[in-house]
Amino acid sequence: MVLDLRAPIALRGKWIGMILLGFVALAGIVGSAAILMTMNQRQMDGVAHAYQVERQVSAMRVSLLRIDSFRRKKDIERRADELKTYRTRLDSAIASFRTLTSDNPRQQARVPLLEALQAQVLLDVGAITKEEFGESIRVEDPLGMLDVLTKAMQDEELRLQRFRNAEMRRIQYGFYVVLGAAGLLLIVVGLLTFVSLRRFTRDLVNSRQALRDANAGLELAVQERTADLKRANGELQRFAYIVSHDLRSPLVNVMGFTSELEIAAKRLGEMLEEARKTRPETLFPGTDELIEQDLPEAIHFIRTSTQKMDRLINAILQLSRQGSRALMPAWLDMNRLLADVVETLKVRAEQAGAQIIIAPNQPEIYGDRVAIEQILSNLIENAIKYNQPGRPPIIEVTGRRIGTHAEFRVTDNGRGIDPGDFERVFDLFRRSGAQDRPGEGIGLAHVRAVVYRLGGSILIESELGVGSTFILSIPLHYSEEQSQVS
Amino acid sequence: MLAAGFLLGACFLLGGCLDSRGQDDVWYGYYYDDLRDNAEGAISRPYKTAQECRIAMQDYTMEAKVTSGFACARGCASARDGAIANCREVVR
Amino acid sequence: MSNPLPVTIIMIEDDLGHARLIEKNIRRAGISNHITHFDNGTAALEFLFNPTQDPARRGPVLILLDLNLPDMSGTAVLARIKEAPELHRTPVVVLTTTDDRVEIQRCYDLGCNVYITKPVNYESFAEAIRQLGLFLSVIQIPESGG
């Protein structure tokens, strides 16, 4: 099952694009609104501006007409102040007009004509002299001209107003278009986002489902394998158990009837003794030998063999039981555990004159106490048992963490193991070296079975006549899945 | 692709809203034959400075009638219907 | 109770050799009670539950039971005996090669009275049988069905 995990990443890129597009649309709306506001403001300014211009034009016209009414000389003299006021008003109106229409070349172009009109009227009423009039242009019918001119000026402002309105409408139209486009964009982005989000979610759900399926398949396969192994293991254990029991049953008979034979032989011996005393002539030659030597010898061999067989069967039984025992993992302080193990072996160690050194700072592990005790106790016991003749055993146990495992080394100065036997010693009923110590070859087989069950491993480093090191590696944290079915 | 298209459209529309002003640095002479009405004025060739424009325009209007007039301006929005307004600077 | 009925020993044991050895040792221990031998569980249960047999005539019984039987498991036989109201007080001595703790516990849970592991070591086996003889002489065997 191949899972395409890139698809959601590509989708994420698209997604960011969508969000950006959404922001662009929003910015468009905001920007358009801002521009519209500015335009609006300008229009309002324009209205105010036109109104002002109109006022100034009116003021100019009124002032000029008033000045024109000062036709008589005595009027000028009598109402000099009034004339002065109108002149000032006219001047300021023209100045204002100039300023207000400073962006319009046509209105500006009219200013000289206005000034000429002003000068003409002032000359006509006699407010200024010919000298003061100077080079100014002469205007015929200044009042008629004034009427036409002011009307043209007002028309111009009106026309500009219309033009401004048209411009505003164009801008508004543009704004609405932008607004519409942005709205559309938002809708499209929203739709696309929705669609891609749905697709993304669907893909996610699909891939998660696929992953779950794959996991389920894997888990199922593992479960099947584990079940198979457990079944095989269970069958093996049952087999061992049944075999050992059914082997024992005839053995009981062999032993029992051997004993009966022994009793019978003893009776025969007594009878032989009796016959020797009372009627030795009736005895066949060789009868004594048969009864006193051959019979007990045969019985002895049968007995020792059956005893040995019983021990072997017991060993198989013990191994099969070990495999079916439920492990109960717990946190173990290995310093204490090792001290306890040494304590149980104290008597044997003293008898052998052995010295057992437990290194400090043993790693703490989570595992089955009984199993680990059995392993270490077996290893230390072996180290005591298989010493180099004439050399008191010195045994050292060290422990350290290596990754997820704890490594324990049981080192002795014993007789050592032939490198060719490194594998053999772990087999059931197999031993190495001189067979001068008691034992059935069960201990290490048992140790290895237990170590495997804990998910660990065991190795030997050894040199003949120098000593051996058993290197035990077990997981720091026991878990059922990790343990090998042994 | 779609996004780029939209972006371009938005920019175009926004651009349309902005004032399209003429060339700022160049002066034009605006001549009006009769200031008593609002007929379309004549526009001169461009000048580098306002001074150049004025001298040229004054020469041009020397023999003209009283109701004619002119102004030099730059940065004007050339409006529709022949109206010239909203110039950045107008001199006489 | 001054003149109790003689106790019959019912031995359910499929291995003839074992049966012979058990009998020999019982006799050697000085127990002369009648021993009825069955080599399978079905026949033994048939005998024990046969209603035509008069329990009073048969007298009180002690059962020696092997756990490995060819036709059914010894524990099943034990369960049947201890379930039956007329037999549940009958002493049952379980004799087997098993020394499995779980199985021993199961036998006691089912109500067996004594559990003897058949040792390969003949001396200890004989000793166990002798103890059984002692057990036989001490226990009060109830009237069958009582």
TrEMBL record, chain A:
<keyword id="KW-0812">Transmembrane</keyword>
<keyword id="KW-0472">Membrane</keyword>
<dbReference type="InterPro" id="IPR003594">
    <property type="entry name" value="HATPase_dom"/>
</dbReference>
<dbReference type="InterPro" id="IPR005467">
    <property type="entry name" value="His_kinase_dom"/>
</dbReference>
<dbReference type="InterPro" id="IPR050351">
    <property type="entry name" value="BphY/WalK/GraS-like"/>
</dbReference>
<dbReference type="GO" id="GO:0000156">
    <property type="term" value="F:phosphorelay response regulator activity"/>
</dbReference>
<dbReference type="GO" id="GO:0030295">
    <property type="term" value="F:protein kinase activator activity"/>
</dbReference>
<feature type="domain" description="Histidine kinase">
    <location>
        <begin position="242"/>
        <end position="478"/>
    </location>
</feature>
<keyword id="KW-0808">Transferase</keyword>
<feature type="transmembrane region" description="Helical">
    <location>
        <begin position="173"/>
        <end position="197"/>
    </location>
</feature>
<dbReference type="InterPro" id="IPR004358">
    <property type="entry name" value="Sig_transdc_His_kin-like_C"/>
</dbReference>
<dbReference type="Pfam" id="PF02518">
    <property type="entry name" value="HATPase_c"/>
</dbReference>
<dbReference type="InterPro" id="IPR036097">
    <property type="entry name" value="HisK_dim/P_sf"/>
</dbReference>
<dbReference type="InterPro" id="IPR003661">
    <property type="entry name" value="HisK_dim/P_dom"/>
</dbReference>
<feature type="transmembrane region" description="Helical">
    <location>
        <begin position="15"/>
        <end position="36"/>
    </location>
</feature>
TrEMBL record, chain B:
<protein>
    <submittedName>
        <fullName>Uncharacterized protein</fullName>
    </submittedName>
</protein>
UniProtKB/TrEMBL annotation, chain C:
<dbReference type="InterPro" id="IPR011006">
    <property type="entry name" value="CheY-like_superfamily"/>
</dbReference>
<dbReference type="Pfam" id="PF00072">
    <property type="entry name" value="Response_reg"/>
</dbReference>
<keyword id="KW-0597">Phosphoprotein</keyword>
<dbReference type="InterPro" id="IPR052893">
    <property type="entry name" value="TCS_response_regulator"/>
</dbReference>
<dbReference type="GO" id="GO:0000160">
    <property type="term" value="P:phosphorelay signal transduction system"/>
</dbReference>
<feature type="domain" description="Response regulatory">
    <location>
        <begin position="8"/>
        <end position="133"/>
    </location>
</feature>
<dbReference type="InterPro" id="IPR001789">
    <property type="entry name" value="Sig_transdc_resp-reg_receiver"/>
</dbReference>
<feature type="modified residue" description="4-aspartylphosphate">
    <location>
        <position position="66"/>
    </location>
</feature>
<protein>
    <submittedName>
        <fullName>CheY-like chemotaxis protein</fullName>
    </submittedName>
</protein>
